[in-house]
Design a protein that fits this description.
Blueprint (H helix, E strand, L loop, with lengths): L1 H11 L5 E17 L2 E19 L2 E7 L5 H15 L13 E4 L12 H16 L5 E19 L4 E19 L2 E4 L2 E5 L10 H16 L6 E7 L1 H13 L4 H5 L2 H6 L13 E4 L20 E6 L2 E2 L6 H7 L7 E2 L8 E2 L3 E4 L6 H6 L3 E14 L2 E13 L2 E6 L3 E5 H6 L1 E4 L4 E3 L5 E3 L2 E4 L2 E4 L2 E9 L2
Parallel strand pairs: 4-6, 9-16, 15-24
Antiparallel strand pairs: 1-2, 1-5, 2-3, 5-6, 6-7, 6-8, 9-25, 10-11, 10-15, 11-12, 13-14, 16-17, 17-18, 17-19, 19-25, 20-25, 21-24, 22-23
């Protein structure tokens, strides 16, 4: 593959300002249960690539499945770029990279037979279905993917990388008198089949939560002090703030440029938010992004102040900032764009007991079952919740939907715990038609004042 890349560069690099070639080979296994039925079982192999050309600020892009037509598609990309280019090409400068990055695994899913994987998932499914009266169905999914990537550019980069992506979920469904409730046990990682094992206690808890929600009262709508658990706080920082920090979103929106002005204060001095590709084992782990730029830990908020954002080489060049290793594509069919990796609220100093002791009447919100954002406004639904009364956890409640403005909410964070945890599931991030991209999010427990919760 490297020789093919070098041949294309020799022939086409001088016909545009910048040229890159990307090859990808993927082996995938997938398993699914819907209730007692094995609904999905398969293995597949996929191969393809793309050529991306930049000329006078205009991009050309062509994807393909046949290496034999590589030069033809390179010509397509160059012709497109030369046709649409009308300005000056602006890419932030980076040092060319020549590297081989083989995958380093604790436990390789390719060494586990498909039959053994089915056996593990079938046992989880049977456990959930047999938990007790009221658990009427399940949704169980699993996948593992082994990727090989080749990347080369007209600037001299030539990178080969291997990556593994593992994920899935076990979701028991409880029903009674037309009311249906569920709860998920998600798992995922990038270097260890072990994330699939030992989930029995979590599955039992998920069944109990789903059944409990059938009897739990709906929360009364109002304004509360809330504690978000690490999973929901991680979803919040990813969806409500992380996307606002992606360089293309900022560059293309003049109003967002004013709101997301570097140096603006968003919270107390104890608030720190970062995005990193360096945490091995997480689904968002990367060594080099899809432009051959080394990943890093990028602070977005440091001590309450906006200090950074997430860039591709193009958005960094256009905004006069440095690339951060966040240019990512779902696969060879798409061009890379600024995307998150592992986005976290950094660890604080409080304990959970200290957090809850200061609340006379509030809500403990656990995990997320859905939500949406619209600019700086958000709506998230907690997958589970309990009331807090006189500094102690009380009864389970349901239908807890949090709404608000992300910037106001960040300002209302008054305590961050010392129990940072990153959580991987079987889903992913969606943007510009590219879904589901492997990402991770994490946080400690976070306490927030004056949160509006919809309910009865």
């Amino acid at each position: 593959m490297k020789s093919r890349i070098e041949q294309v560069m020799k022939k086409f690099a001088d016909k545009c300002d910048y040229l890159e070639v990307h090859f990808e080979e993927t082996e995938e296994s997938c398993i699914g249960f819907n209730g007692p039925r094995l609904s999905d079982l398969g293995r597949r192999v996929d191969f393809g690539g793309n050529v991306r050309a930049l000329h006078r600020g205009g991009w050309g892009f062509a994807s393909f499945n046949s290496v034999d037509r590589l030069e033809e598609f390179a010509q397509y990309a160059v012709d497109q770029a030369r046709t649409v280019g009308k300005e000056v090409s602006r890419l932030a400068e980076t040092e060319p990279v020549v590297a081989d990055v083989p995958v380093k695994l604790r436990s390789d899913p390719r060494n586990v037979s498909l039959e053994k994987k089915v056996e593990i998932l079938r046992a989880y499914n049977k456990r959930a279905l047999g938990f007790g009266d009221g658990v009427t169905s399940t949704v169980v999914t699993y996948f593992d993917r082994f990727h090989k990537f080749w990347f080369g550019s007209s600037e001299g980069s030539l990178v080969y990388q291997e990556r593994v992506d593992i994920g899935g979920r076990v979701s028991p469904v409880a029903a009674r008198d037309g009311d249906t409730q569920s709860y998920n046990v998600g798992f995922g990682g990038s270097d260890d089949f072990g994330v699939v094992k030992g989930l029995e206690a979590e599955i039992d808890e998920a069944c109990a939560v789903a059944l409990g929600k059938l009897d739990a009262p709906k929360i009364k709508g109002g304004e509360y002090t809330v504690i978000l658990d690490p999973r929901l706080a991680g979803v919040f920082v990813h969806e409500a703030f992380g996307h606002l920090s992606e360089g293309d979103n900022v560059y293309e929106d003049e109003n967002l440029q004013k709101v997301m002005k570097l140096g603006r204060r968003f919270g107390g001095s104890f608030l720190n938010v970062y995005d990193t590709g360096l945490d091995r084992g997480l689904r968002g782990h990367l060594v080099y992004d899809d432009e051959g730029v080394a990943t890093e830990k990028t602070y977005l908020i440091r001590e309450g102040e906006l200090v950074g954002r997430l860039h591709s080489r193009e958005t960094a060049g256009k905004m006069g900032e440095k690339p951060t290793g966040n240019a990512r594509c779902l696969d060879y069919r798409f061009p890379p764009i600024p995307r998150m990796r592992n986005t976290c609220i950094a660890q604080g100093e409080a304990t959970f007991d200290e957090m809850i002791a200061g609340i006379d009447y509030g809500v403990y919100c656990i995990s997320a079952s859905g939500g949406q954002t619209n600019g700086e406004m958000f709506t998230f639904t907690a997958a589970n919740a309990r009331m807090i009364r006189d500094g102690k956890l009380a009864e389970q409640v349901r239908d807890v939907t949090l709404t608000g403005n992300v910037f106001t909410t960040l300002e209302n964070i008054d305590l961050i715990a010392n129990d940072l945890a990153a959580h991987d599931g079987g889903g992913g991030c969606g943007k510009a038609g590219q879904f589901p991209l492997p990402v991770t999010h994490g946080s400690p427990h976070v306490r927030i004042r004056n949160v509006v919760i919809g309910g009865e």
